[in-house]
Amino acid sequence: MNSIPIEYYLILSAFMFTVGVTGVLIRRNAIVIFMCVELMLNSANLTMVAFSSYLGQSAGQIFVFFVMTVAAAEAAVGLAIIIAIFRNKLTVNIDEINIFKW
Amino acid sequence: MNLELIIFIVLALTGAISAVGMITRPNPVISALFLIFNFFALAGLYLLLNAQFISIVQIIVYAGAIMVLFLFVIMLLRTGEEPKLFSEKKHIKYFAIVIAVLVFVQLGYLIFYEAPSEYISQRVQQSMEAGTIENIGQQLYTTYMIPFEAAGFLLLAATIGALVLAKKNFE
Amino acid sequence: MNIWEIIIITVIKIGAILTIMLLTVSYLVYFERRISAWIQSRLGPNRVGWEGILQPFADVFKLLLKEDISPVAANKFIHGLAPFIAVFVAFSTYAVIPIGPDVTIFGYSIQLVVADVNIGVLYVLALTSLGVYGLTFAGWSSGSKYSLLGGIRSSAQMISYEVSMGFSVGGVLLMAGSLSPIAIVEAQYGWMWNAIVQPIGFITFTVAAFAETNRLPFDLPEAEPELVGGYHTEYSSMKFAGFFLAEYANMIIAAGMIVTLYLGGWQVPYIDKLGLGEIVTALMQVGSFFVKMGAILFFFIWVRWSIPRFRYDQLMNLGWKVMFPLSLINIVWVAALIMIFNL
C-alpha cells in the first residue's frame, strides 16, 4: 500500500499551531484564548502521534497521554482562575484586566 | 488516489477549517463547537495512524470532559459576543499577522528542510502493535512508572488548586 | 467469507438492531405510562387499539403534525443540530453490546453483535460522554433562561457522574482482563456475575447510569416544577421527538450496559451442562439477555415513581462525596479478590 508521506501530517500540525498562535494574539476573551492554547497542544500531539506511528514506537503516544493529563489539569486550574477574575471584575475581556491589584 | 489519502484529506480539511472557524467566530460557544469538531478530526487522524488508544482517549478526555468544562464555564459566565473580531487597535492585528506568518514559515521550512519522509516510511505492522491499549498500559506501568505517578500527583494538585481558586470565601 | 458477505451481514445486523431499538423505544414509552398508571392506581392509555397497544403510533403521528417552532432568540443552526447530536449518539452506542453468543446460520458463523471492537467499553464511555452536548447545546441555543439552566445543570451532572461510572467499570475490567464486551460477558461464566462478585460497583454504576440518562431521581436538567421542561422547553414537533427518542434509547443502552457488565450478559448459568442443541441454547441465551434487560428497564420505571427528585446540591454531594469514594473502594475490593483467589 502506497502510504502518505509524514510531511502531510506535519504541515497540518504546523497550520493548526499557527492558527492557535493567531487566535491567542487576536482574541480578547480569556476563555477563547484558553481554547486556542488547547488547539496548539493538540497540534503538537498530532506531530508526536505521527512520528510515533511512522517510527513504529509507542513513546510518542505515551507522551501524548501525558500532554492530555497536563491539559486536563491546566483546564481545571485555568478555568478556576477565570471564574475568580470574573467574580472580581465582572468581565473576562483581557483588555480590561490591566491592573495588578483591585 | 488511494483510500487512505482520501480519508486523510477529508479529516485534515475538517480539522483545518474548524480551527480557522474557531478563532474567527465572535461567539465563544460557536468557537467551542468548532474546537470540538477539530478534536473529532484529530481523533480520526489518530485512528488513521493506528493509534487507537490515543484516539479514544482524545474523545473521552478532550471532547467528553475538557470541552464540557469549557462550555459549562462559558455558559455560567455568559460572556456574550466580542464586539469586533479584530480589536480596534490596528497594531495588534498587524503584529498577529506578522507573527503567524513567521511561525508558519519557520515550521514549514523546518519540515521541508529536514524532509523526514526520505528516511522514515510508515511501518504499519509495528505501529499497529505500538498503538494497542495493552502495549501502552504495559509501558505506562513499567518504563514510565515515575512520570505516570507524577502525572497523578499533578492532577491531585490541580484538583485542590481549582477548588481553592473557585471557592467564594475560602477559609 | 469474502468482503461482500461480511458487508451484507453487517448491514443486516445494523438493520435488525435499529428496528429492534425503534420498536423497543416506542413500546418502552407505552409501558412506562401503563406501569406508572398501575403504580399510582390509575388506568393509563388504554383507548387506541386493544388496551392501548397502538398508542405509540398515535403519539408519533401527533408529534409529526405539530408545528415546528424555533424561538426568535434562538441560534437557528445549533437549535436544529442539538436533537440530531442526541439521537446520533444514542443510537451509535448500541453497536458494541453483544446480545448473544456466536451462532451458525446457513453455514455462516455469526457474532450477535454489530461490531466486536476490542476497546468496546471505552467506545461506549466515549459516546455517552458526548451525549451531553445534545442537551447542553439545546439549552444554550434556545435563548431562554430555563433552557440555559437545564443545559448548565446537565453538563455539570454528566461530568460528575462520569467519574464514578468510569471507576466502577474499572472493577469489571480488572475481573475480565479485557475491554471487549464479549470477553467481559464470557468472563462471567456460571454464577461469577459481577453484580455478585462486586456489589458496590454494581450499585455505583447503576446510580451513575440513572444520572447519565437523566432519569428521576436525577432528572435535574428537565425538572418540570422548577425549569418548565429544562433543556427542551423550546422544542416542539420532530425536534422534541428526537430528544424523547434519545432519552429512551439511552435508557435501553444503560440497561444493556448494566446487563453486559454486571449481570452476565447473555449467559444463563450452566445452560451448556444441560446438553440442549446449539440453536435452542442460543435462543435461550438471547432470550435471557432480553429478559434481564426488561427487568432493569422495569426497575428504572419503578424507581421513577418511588423516589422524589434530589435537590441540586444533594445531587452533587452524592456524586462526589458518596459515589466516587465507593467506586474507589470497589476497585480496591476487586484487586484484593484477584490477589487472594488468583482469579
Could you please describe the fold and organization of this structure?
The complex is a heterotrimer of chains A (102), B (171) and C (343). Chain A has helices spanning 6-26, 30-55, 59-89. Chain A has 102 residues and is mainly α. Chain A has a single domain (6-89), classed as Helix Hairpins (Orthogonal Bundle), CATH 1.10.287.3510. By secondary structure, chain B is mainly α. Chain B is built from 7 helices and no strands. Chain B has helices spanning 3-24, 28-48, 52-77, 90-114, 124-130, 133-141, 145-166. The termini of chain B are far apart. The mean pLDDT of chain B is 82. Chain C has 12 helices and 2 strands; from the N terminus they run αααββααααααααα. Chain C has a two-stranded antiparallel ribbon with strand order 1-2. Chains in contact: A-B, B-C. Chains A and B meet through helix 1, helix 2 and helix 3 of A and helix 1, helix 2, helix 3, helix 4 and helix 5 of B.
Shape, principal axes of CA atoms of chain B: globular
Q: Pair with the most extensive interface?
A: A-B, 74 and 87 residues
Tell me the CATH architecture of chain A.
Answer: Orthogonal Bundle
- The CATH superfamily of the largest domain in chain B turns out to be NADH-ubiquinone/plastoquinone oxidoreductase chain 6, subunit NuoJ
CATH class of the largest domain in chain B: Mainly Alpha
Concise account of the structure shown:
The complex is a heterotrimer of chains A (102), B (171) and C (343). With 102 residues, chain A is mainly alpha-helical. Chain A has three helices and no strands.
State the main characteristics.
heterotrimer, A: 102 residues, mainly alpha, Helix Hairpins, B: 171 residues, Four Helix Bundle (Hemerythrin (Met), subunit A), 2 domains, 7 helices, globular
Secondary structure topology:
The complex is a heterotrimer of chains A (102), B (171) and C (343).
Chain A: H1 6-26, H2 30-55, H3 59-89
Chain B: H1 3-24, H2 28-48, H3 52-77, H4 90-114, H5 124-130, H6 133-141, H7 145-166
Helix pairs in contact in B: 1-2, 2-3
Chain C: H1 3-39, H2 55-65, H3 76-92, E1 100-105, E2 108-112, H4 120-141, H5 145-176, H6 181-187, H7 194-197, H8 199-212, H9 224-227, H10 237-262, H11 278-304, H12 312-341
Antiparallel strand pairs in C: 1-2
